[in-house]
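Here is an idea for our session: we take a single protein and study its fold together. To get us started, please write out a protein record for me. Once you have written the record down, we can walk along the chain together.
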Amino acid sequence: MRALRIIGRWLAAAMLIASTAPVQAQAQPEDQQQNAALRRLIRAAKNRPYAALSWHELKLAATNERQAQQLKDALAHSGRSLDDVSEQSMWVDAAAGHPEAIISFYDDNALNHPEDKTRLNTACWARAARGIDLENSISVCDLAIAADRKGYTLLFRGLAELQLGLNIEALRDFDEALGDKQFAAHPFLADAAFGRGIARIRLGDAEGHKDIRAATAANKNVVTNFTDIGITEELSD
């Protein structure tokens, strides 16, 4: 009798597992992506103390409130400086759809240190390269370019212009950035080429596909950089 009861309980458990398996299977891929992104972010927080956290990974993990808090806790115990923990935690909030604190942080830095031209550039970058507060992005990037006309700042304004549908203006900025000799060895060069390709394609110029191919050959992550800010159009020629 005892053996029959054990078998009965086993069969009931098996039936319960079978009945819930399809629902679990449907939710699993997204959960797996979020969990994997969280693990990578926590490792980066601890093992790369001077590196910013990946925006792509943050957008995967931080949309889950529980995981966002886990990541903030990991940052708090990572051994990073208090200032860096605060800044990266604000980026966690931004990825979760609350960018107000990080925008204020960079804007205040620029206002309080007018002698440092890079601060305005960072305020421009935060908006354009992360797709946040776009309504103010052009005016901030204009100020950054007026203070110090660098290839990378032109790139950032071009990114903002692409997101706002200002394709002619974006093409102009990407062209100038790519023509800047000091920008030629910059890590963001591929982004400028990719952005120019997008602008050209949107304006009906098939030569943009050459820019896209060159950019993706130079940096395999460039497509992700653009899809993360909503630039996802079909690129096959």
